[in-house]
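Appendix B, Record 12. Input sequence as logged:
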Amino acid sequence: MSSNQLLIVLSGPSGVGKDALLKKMKEQKYSFHYVVTVTSRPRRKGERDGVDYHFISQQEFQQMIDNGELLEWANVYGNYYGVPRREISQALSKGMDVIVKVDVQGAATIKRILPQTVFIFLRPPSMEELEKRLRQRHSESARDLALRLRKAEEEMNSLPLFAHVLTSHQGKLDEVISQIQAIVTAEKRREKPGVIEL
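Logged structural output:
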């Protein structure tokens, strides 16, 4: 495995468009390995196991924690989410760049473990716009919506954790993808501290 491979962490508040961005990047055949997060939350309409998330029970999730199989994990809104360690190490060993989507708490954990990771924060143009997007999803109760908006405001205070902050404008995902491409190109040219050890 060369030391020129990148582990990219994509983070940002709920509803900002992380899933839509990654979906478009996959459709456009960007050559990343996209890590599929493990979760104990119920599947939403239209979601596919192994594609959107690996959907498992809380007991199975606890087993993964106990066995040290997760790079990081968190309880978010009452559900567990985690990043499978083996999936990242296998992709890196095949010479692929890896992109993983986590919340801000997860990004902070990964930064402590793997500081050479590339951290990208996707933010909304405004909190009003974020609220509008969350309402359009129709997937949260009024209580959950309020909780997500409060959490989003807290997450916006974590920007110093991220080397790159991009704004997600409605209908302009291609611009964000171009910015990510530019970040990857620039990072590949930089002197790397060495191989990512998991």
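The helical segments are 18-27, 58-66, 85-93, 104-113, 127-137, 142-156, 173-189.
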